[in-house]
Specification:
By secondary structure, the protein is α+β, with helices and mostly antiparallel strands. The protein is built from eleven helices and 13 strands. The strands form three sheets. A nine-stranded mixed beta sheet has the order 5-4-6-7-1-8-13-12-11, sandwiched between helices. Strands 2-3 form a two-stranded antiparallel ribbon.
Length: 372
Amino acid sequence: MFDVAITGTGVFTPEHVISNDELVVAFNAYADRFNDQNAGAIAAEQIKAVPHSSADFILAASGIENRFVLDKDGVLDPARMFPALPARNDDEPGQMAEMAMDACGKALAQAGLTGADVDLVICAASNHERAYPAIAVEIQQLLGAGGFAFDMNVACSSATFGIQSAADMIRAGSVRTAIVVNPEICSAHLEWRDRDCHFIFGDVATATVLQRGEDAKAAHFKVRSTRCATQFSNNIRNNNGYLRKTRDQMEDRRDMQFMQNGRKVFKEVLPMVSSHIADHMTDEGIAAGDLKRLWLHQANKTMNDYIGKKVLGRDPEPGEQPNILQDYANTSSAGSIIAFSKHSDDLASGDIGIICSFGAGYSVGSVVVERG
């Protein structure tokens, strides 16, 4: 068995930013347009009017202030309200692969490696732009990597599940160097016309390099332990799939986008995640006082504050549980890796932290790391 280390991370951030104020102007214009066009049906109580949103509502509900997106104009067009991302020719790099290459380049540079050093690529994301060929195999080719590659999807937990998969293969000796990539085009599966969720997601890509511990060339984190768990729930879902595309559903895309029962998610996921982390810490002999940092999935500030307090037994001190949610919004599987990438350099040798993600499934994954 081999030791495993995280030796590099990288984050690709799109150039376009949408603030809450910009988003609210577009959404409210859409709401007025919809309500005017359907005034008769609304008056007859056949359908409900679309209520206005507000920046104060968004911030209070989520802690989000801005989000990065690949396309801004399409999202903010009241007559469209979803990104304009043209399909690419088959001989062009896919959108996800292109994003991934930026994040991979940064992660590999930090690790002191090139693509040729990689012998496993896992593309772990909540939505994939095609069924096959695998996005991971395309990334493998663009990197000039050897070995093999595959896609995986565990929604918002995809990154930690991918890290566990890669770590297990490194420990077993079947691969030496792996890169787990999380290109998340969340703007494409968000229903921007739904007041309850129109503010939640943003776009980003992250990459994490894992190697045998003996191969780590510079500052790194030892992967002490990984743990994953799932429990079926339909409270967070995306029904997009060819079996669901009836003619009516093709004309009304709501059934094909992100949907959730927020109240049930809060009630059911928070205890599951808190217990998962606590049990993982207990089994590893880690007390709350030993934990220097929690890098949590960036879904909702209230959720993260609750989990941090449960795990630590007190309110987290500034820096103990870093949030990037206010700047990036929810970026699905990539959120915890953004937090880890941007808020880990200050830890000293021997310091212990936990990367944790959770989401649809339900799923939860945790990675205990120690600064090398």
